[in-house]
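Can't paste images in this forum, so I'm doing it all in text. The chain is below; anyone willing to post the predicted structure tokens underneath?
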Amino acid sequence: MATVPSSRDDHHAAHFYVRNLEASVKFYVDTLGFQVVRREDDHAMVSLGASTVRLIDANRRDRGNSRGRVTASSRALVVPDVDDVYRRVRDARVVVIDEMRDRASKVKDFVTVDPDGFPIRLSTAG
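Text version of the structure:
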């Protein structure tokens, strides 16, 4: 898995404390199509289009009540091609908890879950 150079700002990334960092990175990269932009022993930053997610190993970081929870930003991720991401999720047989739909606001989206069970809304503006 290659790391893509980036100057992305960590403050704008959604933060997820995860139980298995390797499984989470694999899910975001292999299933959703994100790219790794930074990788350390206890966290990874992945990105697709304008969306960046920081995956933090909850087992290696002492964050008290934050373990295993979304701690910052929205769980809604805007991606360049939501149809492609939806196809990838379906091909991987990942649970979809809200099917793909076009909304009146010109947004097309669906909701799936990551390996820790975090619901993630993926969308593309119409």
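The first helix runs from residue 21 to 31. The mean pLDDT is 83.
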